[in-house]
TrEMBL record:
<keyword id="KW-0444">Lipid biosynthesis</keyword>
<dbReference type="Pfam" id="PF00173">
    <property type="entry name" value="Cyt-b5"/>
</dbReference>
<feature type="transmembrane region" description="Helical">
    <location>
        <begin position="265"/>
        <end position="289"/>
    </location>
</feature>
<dbReference type="Pfam" id="PF00487">
    <property type="entry name" value="FA_desaturase"/>
</dbReference>
<keyword id="KW-0560">Oxidoreductase</keyword>
<keyword id="KW-0812">Transmembrane</keyword>
<keyword id="KW-0472">Membrane</keyword>
<protein>
    <submittedName>
        <fullName>FADS2 desaturase</fullName>
    </submittedName>
</protein>
<keyword id="KW-0275">Fatty acid biosynthesis</keyword>
<feature type="transmembrane region" description="Helical">
    <location>
        <begin position="124"/>
        <end position="142"/>
    </location>
</feature>
<dbReference type="GO" id="GO:0016717">
    <property type="term" value="F:oxidoreductase activity, acting on paired donors, with oxidation of a pair of donors resulting in the reduction of molecular oxygen to two molecules of water"/>
</dbReference>
<dbReference type="InterPro" id="IPR005804">
    <property type="entry name" value="FA_desaturase_dom"/>
</dbReference>
<dbReference type="InterPro" id="IPR001199">
    <property type="entry name" value="Cyt_B5-like_heme/steroid-bd"/>
</dbReference>
<dbReference type="InterPro" id="IPR012171">
    <property type="entry name" value="Fatty_acid_desaturase"/>
</dbReference>
<comment type="similarity">
    <text>Belongs to the fatty acid desaturase type 1 family.</text>
</comment>
<keyword id="KW-1133">Transmembrane helix</keyword>
<feature type="domain" description="Cytochrome b5 heme-binding">
    <location>
        <begin position="18"/>
        <end position="95"/>
    </location>
</feature>
Length: 444
C-alpha cells in the first residue's frame, strides 16, 4: 500500500498518513458488522456511523463495498454539509492504479451521466418553483375546505356523502404526491424545512409516519427492484415477482398463497391492506387539515373542535361510510400508480450495475399529458425521478431529452408507455410470474 496525504476514521493510522486500497479489498467490507464505501475515490468506514444515518442504516448498508458516489449525490441536496459528517470516517483512498468504478462498470457511461447531472444543475433544474408548490398545496386545502363546507350546508344525504368521498379521495391522493416531494427534499433548499413540511403533510394530512416512509422509500430508490434490498419487492407471503424468484420458490415448494392467481387478487389484497391500515382516521380524513394545527400552535383545542364538529354535522354512520369509501378509492389510486412503473420491469437479485443502468432496468415512464402529470403526481416521469430524486417534479420534462439522448448513446432501454397499457402490464406481469411459479411448483 502506498501512503501519503491525510488520515481519519477508525483505521488507527498515524495522523498525516493515508492508506490506499484496491477494489478487491474494499468489496470484502460489505457485512453487517463491517461496512466500507467509496465516494469520489475516497474510502470511508461507516460501520459504527450507519445506525446514526438520517436516511436509515439499511440504505447506506446496501451500498457497502461499492462506489456510492452517484447515490450520495442523488440523495443529498447539500453534499458540502454532509462531507463534514464523512470526514471523520475517512480511512483512505483508492490506489492510484485502481479504476474509479468497481466491478468492471462502464467508466465512460458513468462519467457521461455525471456530466449530465452537472448540466442539469447548471440549468437550475434542481431549483424548485415556489409558485408551483404553493398552488399545489392550495388546491389540496381548497378541496378539504370544500368537503367541510358541503357537510355544513348540505347535510349528510347519500348524494352528498358520495360526492364528499370523491373530493376527499382526490385531496388525499394529491397530498400523498405532495408528501413525496417534501420527503425527497425537492422543494426547499434547506433539508430542515423539507423535513418539517414532510412530517406535516404525511403525518397530519395523511396520518402516516414520516420515519417509516423514509426507512422504506430510500431503500427502494437506492436499489430498485433488487431482492433483499428493495422492501417494495420483498413480498413473498403475498406475491412472487419477476422471472427468477417464482421459479426458485416453486422448486422449493413454497406456497403461502396460490400465486398463479396473484394477478386476480392483486387489486384486492394490496388495497385491503391500505384501506384498513392503522393510519386510517376515524373521522373524515379530509378534515385532518384542521387537526394538524396543533403542530404549529401547540394547542390541542382545534383538534377536539374538528372531531366534535365533524361527528355532530356528519353523524357517525355517514362519517364512517365516507371514510371507508375514501380509503378504498384512494388505495386503488395509490397502488395502481405506484406499481405501474416497477412491477412490469426487471426484478432480480443484485447485479452491481452503475446508477443509470440499475435505475433504467427497474423503471419505466408513462406518456406525458396534463392529466397524467396531475393524476400520478408526475410519477409518470419515474425514470427522471429515480435518476434525480431531489429534482423538483415540474422540471422532469426539461431533463427528459438529455436522459433519452444518453440512453440512446449507450444502448440503454428507455421505456415509455400509455397510462392504460401501464395498468394492464401490471396484471400481465403478475400473471406471467404466477405461471412460472406454478410450473416450477408442479414439475421441477
Amino acid at each position: 500500500m502506498g501512503k501519503g496525504g491525510e488520515q481519519g476514521g477508525d483505521s488507527g493510522e498515524p495522523a498525516g498518513q493515508i492508506r490506499f486500497y484496491t477494489w478487491e479489498e474494499i468489496q470484502k467490507h460489505n457485512l453487517r458488522t463491517d461496512k466500507w464505501l467509496v465516494i469520489e475515490r475516497k474510502v470511508y468506514n461507516v460501520t459504527k456511523w450507519a445506525n446514526k444515518h438520517p436516511g436509515g442504516q439499511r440504505v447506506i448498508s446496501h451500498c457497502a463495498g461499492e462506489d456510492a458516489t452517484d447515490a450520495f449525490q442523488a440523495f443529498h441536496i447539500n453534499p458540502t454539509l454532509v462531507q463534514k459528517f464523512l470526514k471523520p470516517l475517512l480511512i483512505g483512498e483508492l490506489a492510484p492504479g485502481e479504476p474509479s468504478q468497481d466491478r468492471g462498470k462502464n467508466s465512460q457511461l458513468v462519467e457521461d451521466f455525471r456530466t449530465l447531472r452537472k448540466t442539469a444543475e447548471d440549468m437550475n433544474l434542481f431549483r424548485a418553483s415556489p409558485l408551483f408548490f404553493s398552488l399545489y398545496l392550495g388546491h389540496i386545502i381548497a378541496m378539504e375546505v370544500l368537503a367541510w363546507l358541503m357537510v355544513s350546508y348540505f347535510g349528510t344525504g347519500w348524494i352528498t356523502t358520495l360526492i364528499l368521498a370523491c373530493i376527499l379521495t382526490t385531496s388525499q391522493a394529491q397530498a400523498g404526491w405532495l408528501q413525496h416531494d417534501f420527503g425527497h427534499l425537492s422543494v426547499f433548499k434547506k433539508s430542515s424545512w423539507n423535513h418539517i413540511l414532510h412530517k406535516f403533510v404525511i403525518g397530519h394530512l395523511k396520518g402516516a409516519s414520516a420515519n417509516w416512509w423514509n426507512h422504506r422509500h430510500f431503500q427502494h430508490h437506492a436499489k430498485p427492484n433488487i431482492f433483499q434490498k428493495d422492501p417494495d419487492v420483498n413480498m413473498l407471503h403475498i406475491f412472487v415477482l419477476g422471472d427468477t424468484q417464482p421459479v426458485e420458490y416453486g422448486k422449493k415448494k413454497l406456497k403461502y398463497l396460490p400465486y398463479n392467481h396473484q394477478h386476480e387478487y392483486f387489486f384486492l389484497n394490496m388495497v385491503l391492506v391500505l384501506s384498513i391500515s392503522p393510519c386510517t382516521m376515524m373521522v373524515h380524513p379530509g378534515f385532518s387539515l384542521l387537526s394538524s394545527f396543533p403542530i404549529a400552535t401547540h394547542c390541542p383545542i382545534p383538534t377536539y373542535l374538528c372531531v366534535f364538529s365533524t361527528l355532530v354535522m356528519a353523524g357517525s354512520f355517514q362519517s364512517a361510510l365516507a371514510t371507508l369509501s375514501q380509503r378504498f378509492l384512494e388505495s386503488h389510486w395509490f397502488v395502481w400508480v405506484t406499481q405501474m412503473n416497477h412491477i412490469p420491469m426487471e426484478i432480480d437479485s443484485e447485479k452491481h450495475r452503475d446508477w443509470l443502468s440499475s435505475q433504467m432496468a427497474a423503471t419505466c415512464n408513462i406518456e406525458q399529458s396534463f392529466f397524467n402529470d396531475w393524476f400520478t403526481g408526475h410519477l409518470n416521469f419515474q425514470i427522471e425521478h429515480h435518476l434525480f430524486p431531489t429534482m423538483p417534479r415540474h422540471n422532469f420534462w426539461k431533463v427528459k431529452p438529455l436522459v433519452k439522448s444518453l440512453c440512446a448513446k449507450y444502448g440503454v432501454q428507455y421505456e415509455e408507455k400509455p397510462l392504460g397499457k401501464a395498468f394492464v402490464d401490471i396484471v400481465g406481469s403478475l400473471k406471467k410470474s404466477g405461471d412460472l411459479w406454478l410450473d416450477a411448483y408442479l414439475h421441477k
